[in-house]
Design the sequence.
């Protein structure tokens, strides 16, 4: 973790403000990291090696940071329950990554060999299950309401993965389908992190609901901004080559919007990205990727995707406006601004 042991005033676009506030969040995150590894290191060696694989590989720890910032809206932001709740959401997130890598047949995760590639699909699945079990054990110490929140969130995560795997049913709006998947697979856990942070620090019921809705909006906005960056960025700008999703046959929000347009450019885009029967085609030719990116960047679909992002940002700002004014609020406001500004 790049933050641990240092004062970090900017994290993933979040301006943490004062050194004192940043240091306090960093100290709490260090406790989360300690508890995370302690939970995953208790057990048989053959199990814990795989279970700690992704945790030790690093990662941004965005979800626990969001929970820790959300805890600043309650009177007890340094309660031990806050650390427990923040660790739970990261355990759930890491568990989903093991399962995602198996489904995607991924070979790398966070710059390291994925668990499924290093061991096997079976070991990776079981390691993910172990993380879910550890998360369940930890959340049980927070009481029945917290157990219910995690159970409901886990159901949303699985539903989103299933919805994405099955695909958009015939006759339904692919944009609505895609945004629903984004909420279920990404935003639901960030919303739970906000809810947990507020609950465990003693925030008011109204503020807890606002923090949950804020997580919804930020989680969806960040995914939409990633969609836009994958198409609009220059090589090297975003840490990955533009058009990665197109090469994998994944149709993100700008693509879905653009495919509904009419005219020669839209016809050519459909020719590149869809088979005669309407199935999605992965692009393997670099020249075709470049052509598709050019068509997408010039499309109304890209404009509509940016408008959708702005809409989610407005939702987030609206929730923030109703929260008490403190350094956490200013930090979260900077995150929303960054989410929009990072698309250029």
Sequence:
């Amino acid at each position: 973790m790049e933050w641990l042991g240092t004062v970090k005033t900017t994290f993933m676009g979040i301006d943490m403000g004062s050194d004192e506030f940043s240091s306090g969040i960093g100290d709490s995150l260090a406790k989360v990291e300690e508890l995370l590894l302690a939970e995953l290191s208790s057990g048989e060696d053959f199990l814990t090696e795989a279970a700690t694989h992704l945790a030790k590989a690093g990662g941004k720890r965005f979800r626990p940071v969001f929970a820790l910032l959300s805890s600043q809206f309650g009177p007890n932001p340094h309660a031990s329950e806050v650390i427990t709740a923040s660790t739970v959401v990261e355990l759930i997130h890491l568990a989903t990554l093991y399962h995602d890598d198996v489904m995607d047949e991924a070979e790398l995760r966070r710059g390291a060999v994925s668990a499924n590639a290093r061991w096997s699909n079976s070991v990776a699945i079981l390691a993910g299950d172990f993380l879910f079990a550890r998360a369940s054990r930890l959340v049980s110490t927070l009481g029945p309401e917290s157990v219910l929140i995690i159970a409901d969130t886990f159901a949303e995560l699985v539903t989103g993965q299933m919805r994405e795997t099955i695909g958009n049913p015939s006759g339904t709006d692919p944009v609505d389908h895609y945004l629903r998947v984004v909420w279920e697979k990404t935003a639901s856990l960030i919303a739970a992190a906000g809810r947990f942070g507020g609950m465990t620090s003693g925030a008011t019921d109204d503020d807890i609901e606002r923090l949950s809705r804020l997580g919804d909006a930020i989680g969806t906005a960040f995914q939409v901004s990633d969609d836009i960056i994958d198409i609009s960025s220059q090589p090297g700008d975003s840490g990955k080559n533009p058009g990665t999703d197109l090469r994998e046959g994944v149709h993100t929000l700008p693509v879905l919007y653009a495919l509904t347009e009419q005219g020669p450019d839209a016809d050519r885009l459909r020719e590149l990205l869809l088979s005669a029967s309407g199935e999605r085609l992965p692009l393997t030719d670099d020249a075709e990727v470049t052509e598709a990116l050019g068509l997408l960047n010039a499309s109304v679909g890209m404009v509509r995707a940016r408008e959708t992002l702005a809409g989610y940002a407005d939702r987030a700002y609206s929730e923030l406006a109703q929260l008490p004014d403190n350094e956490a609020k200013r930090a979260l406001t900077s995150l929303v601004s960054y989410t929009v500004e990072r698309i250029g």
Residues 204-344 form a domain with the Farnesyl Diphosphate Synthase fold (CATH 1.10.600.10).
